[in-house]
Fold these 2 entries.
Entry 1:
Amino acid sequence: MIEFGSRARRLPAPPFVVWESLTRPRRPGARPWLELLADEVEPRVLASDEPDLVVWSSLWVSRPLDQVRFDLAAVGRGGTLLRFTLLTPVEAPDQSKTGHLRRRVNYLVFGALRLSYGQ
């Protein structure tokens, strides 16, 4: 797999909560956060190891073989260091497309998901 984008930031929730959010984003009682655009599809969980790892299938119709890997680690007082990594088994997208895909995952997990925790 070729890595073509990555970013890590802290989230206020503990790893087991973040793991649950990533593996079951539409579970009953959860605040909605995974709002997809017209060119995106619901990700499938390809692999997971609670509470440290989640791997999603591609969100993008135009790049069906891509994957989004999430690595989770406990930090501070109940928080999580979350790293997403964009992976592909084929040629990496051009710089413009890579920037769009990184920004999109960044918004979903460090914007919308963070807000679903009340921050």
Entry 2:
Amino acid sequence: MENKTWADRAAGGAATDTSLGSEAAIEKAVAESVVHAVIEGAGPSRRQFLAALGATALTALIAEVFPFKAATAMAADPVGKPEKTDLSVGFIPITCATPIIMAEPLGFYKKHGLNASVKRAAGWAMIRDWAINGEVDAAHMLTPMPLAITLGAGSVPKPFYMPAVENINGQAITLHIKHKGVKSAADMKGFRFCVPFDFSMHNYLLRYFLAEGGVHPDKDVQIRVVPPPEMVANLKAGNVDGYLAPDPFNQRAVYENVGFIYKLSKEIWDRHPCCAFTVSQDFATKYPNTFAALFRAIVDATHYASNPAHRKEIAAAIAPTNYLNQPVTVLEQVLTGTYADGLGAIKKEPSRIDFDPYPWHSMAVWILTQMKRWGHVKGDVNYKAVAEQVYRAADCDRIAKELGYPTHAGTMAKHVIMGREFDPHQPDAYVKSFPIHSMA
């Protein structure tokens, strides 16, 4: 086997040749630029002679006097050396954190000049407190969390950045095996549900699903917060009837024959965001080069995870005790989308979970409308300003371009949730359009 990390062999590469790893692509681009400059700068007769040598011979000739290695290093590290390289990144042991976790064993942090290690937390409140208090340098968070922390909802206010989304889709409504007869939200009146955190896509998607079915989530059912690793045990004990939760705990309930997958979250909102990579504004300002290197590592790893061909390798990398502590077969079912549903069927849904780092501002606006709808934020909300402050879409595209990945033409898009279109330019009208809500 070649003496390279998986990240080296799989990175996106420069626009000149996306089949190469990014380091090789940058080296190739630098060489092409220098050779082109030498030929263009020569006189007509000399230019003809140089062109006749051929690219390989001419590059070798120039290499005797031009420092290609130094130029390649400068091109590959446009923001300078990280101010600190020893970093800790907090995470919750769920598949939503895949890029953040896999970046350690598969070498993405190392590739971008960092000695980063991931630190496992028991629940989201712990992650939030670690991040606010600086006990970790960066953190895996639920996409609503940096918005809530910045606004001071549920915690002391502290400005946070969400530079990249970790995963899209990847959740499910799982019900206890005794509820196999449930057909709709209306059949769930009186149920006891759990979600991983108040400020979570799980909570907002569950509430949206129930309300669209005529069930008031604050009056007709109970919803309480339970850390993801404790959800299967609570389902098994009969403490809850179901949950909208991150994987692998939906699939783990099937694996243990205590629950079945009622509905994938992508059936509520396809390509919805779930978890994210976050840092405090203080950290990004104090360590700009470190932040940029960490940002590149995460975007690089997220794009690598988006390739279905890498999913089994990733499942094996993140399964060990210090990461997710799950059977590889459970993780493979989640990551590949070929899975047992708990009702006797084998489903094939390749986009059950996917990975796309781009933090659309329109996604942030939708989340803020639901925080407003359910009384999690009070008063007027400047949706656009908060979205632009927290979700670093332009920065994410800049990093993606540096790494040779696709970029976007805008930061706002219309989204369809359960067949209903959301226009991010009309958030107030959207909030007021719901007959079921918990606004004062």
